[in-house]
TrEMBL record:
This is Rhodopsin domain-containing protein. Residues 30-230 form the Rhodopsin domain. GO terms for cellular component: membrane. The lineage of its organism: Eukaryota, Fungi, Dikarya, Basidiomycota, Agaricomycotina. Residues 258-284 are annotated as: Disordered. It is a multi-pass membrane protein. It comes from the Eukaryota. It is found in: Membrane. It comes from Hydnomerulius pinastri MD-312. The keyword Transmembrane applies.
Length: 323
């Protein structure tokens, strides 16, 4: 299918997708800062940081090959071609580690998630290997007299079909695994909320992955690059959705409690089922407040009783105090 866009339209689409990716980068940086601040950095955050670096490299490569020529242009093409694949799969690894954090106490489920992680790594390696093979064995794309925004290393139909297969398989796993956890495992309410967030975000990512793969299979070259940029930015947004939403929810609930003096806290921040509350440092001193007013009253009353007994007022006065 031949679908062409004017250079101006292509440029504006690139600007829009670049803004989307820039916002996703800011969300990721905020997520990492928040996790560090509350002492909650874990493997899911490591993968999010790697995805951030990969996405930033892809955005840099995009504008290098759009605005330069010669060797710089070719470097931008190579960076752009591989950064997208890495970004999307690193985001999937981050989401998988989010599930792993929730089920970490179960050895059986932990082993299952780790096996899925190995499968994801093999799928990612297969995609990188086929891109390397295609772009290094067939160098005709570098000298094809096409418009500059179309002069990219294009995958064959079989390679695009494999990418579609890996996208559907991985996203289906990321969708079905939370469903299984909700169906078979009894989890606290906050953890169930986290699972539902992961489930919902993966549905959006799946639809976008399918649309991108269909554009490649149908050779809709004018949309393939745009969907690539959009999927890269949106995947980073989805990667941070869980942290941002739970953080905002806590802030909102805390604001409601502070605004209503009669409100009672039904959910203690110490009962941290969604892993968004700050951890308490074990080295920090802990202070306990003891109310001594009751002890003072008891001592005063005891002194009064002793004084009456010594003055000879007798049992009547003592009985009046007891009454």
């Amino acid at each position: 299918m031949v679908l062409t866009l004017s250079p101006a339209t292509t440029f504006y689409l690139k600007v829009c997708t670049s803004v989307l990716q820039g916002l996703a980068f800011l969300f990721t940086i905020f997520r990492l800062w928040l996790r560090y601040k509350i002492h909650r950095l874990w493997w899911e955050d490591v993968w999010a940081a790697i995805a951030l670096c990969s996405g930033a490299s892809g955005l840099m490569g995009l504008w290098i090959f759009l605005k330069t020529t010669g060797e710089s242009y070719m470097v931008g093409v190579w960076i752009y071609a591989f950064a997208f694949t890495c970004t999307v799969w690193f985001v999937r690894m981050s989401l998988l580690c989010s599930i792993l954090r929730i089920v970490y106490s179960s050895q059986r489920l932990r082993r299952m998630i780790l096996a899925i992680a190995v499968l994801f790594a093999l799928m990612w390696a297969g995609l990188i290997a086929q891109k390397l093979y295609k772009c290094t064995t067939d160098m005709s794309w570098q000298s094809t007299p096409q418009r500059k925004d179309h002069q990219l290393c294009r995958l064959s139909s079989s390679m695009a079909a494999y990418e579609l297969f890996t996208d559907i398989t991985s996203d289906a796993i990321l969708i079905l695994t939370p469903i299984r956890l909700l169906w078979n495992v009894k989890l606290p309410r906050k953890q169930r909320r986290m699972i539902l967030l992961i489930f919902s975000s993966n549905i959006v990512m799946t639809m976008l992955s399918i649309f991108h793969a269909v554009c490649m299979l149908a050779h809709i070259t004018a949309l393939t690059s745009t969907t690539t940029d959009f999927e890269s930015g949106l995947s980073l947004f989805i990667c941070n959705l869980l942290v941002i939403v739970t953080f905002s929810y806590r802030k909102f609930r805390r604001g409601l409690r502070n605004g209503d003096p009669e409100a009672t806290t039904t959910e203690s921040d110490s009962e941290d089922d969604d892993y968004t509350a700050p951890t308490r440092s074990s080295s920090a001193p802990q202070f306990t407040t003891v109310d001594l007013s009751a002890l003072t009253r008891d001592k005063t009353q005891s002194g009064a009783v002793s004084g009456m007994l010594e003055s000879g007022d007798g049992g009547a006065s003592f009985a009046s105090i007891l009454v």
